[in-house]
Amino acid sequence: GAVVSQHPSRVICKSGTSVKIECRSLDFQATTMFWYRQFPKQSLMLMATSNEGSKATYEQGVEKDKFLINHASLTLSTLTVTSAHPEDSSFYICSASLRGGFYNEQFFGPGTRLTVL
Amino acid sequence: AQSVAQPEDQVNVAEGNPLTVKCTYSVSGNPYLFWYVQYPNRGLQFLLKYITGDNLVKGSYGFEAEFNKSQTSFHLKKPSALVSDSALYFCAVRDLLERGSTLGRLYFGRGTQLTVWP
Question: Which pLDDT band, with edges at 50, 70 and 90, does B23 fall under?
């Protein structure tokens, strides 16, 4: 149980286009989903916290107009990278917390490798 | 402020030898501690966690970690390393006093690359 999927696993796009990444909790309801960005051989940088039915909370320095997050249901959150630039190339990982309970741990998706040409 | 430190970028051990990956933390309240492992181009896999109780926590794949409150440490250990344990290891902490819209967020260390030589 507690499986999180991401789609696509890899995406290559041209500079200036938009890319949508999906994060799904397959067998549980996720009240909260988190979006991270990871550069090569570096730690995960939290981009935003997404609560179902409300606006995402973005970390300082993350442009909310560039990285659009939607958490429309208890099993799906999406991250849209708008007007992508080569510097947006990175590994994006989502995680999801089970609904209910205070000690909920996060379950991580397999990640999406974005390459912007 | 909440933070996690993994002082070693790399740890190298021979197969069959014990391994330790170090982690220290800083939180305002009581810590909720985790270890995760990441293989190349993959997401994070959960190894173990500590909330309360016995200071020695046993997890997946033979790993264990010891919580030391006085030293604010949560070192990851394994008695006998395997080549297949080679991966990137992350320590993370959640502050149980944190509330609001970011409830549940984790603070990660920078990661330690473990290499086990055959």
Answer: very high
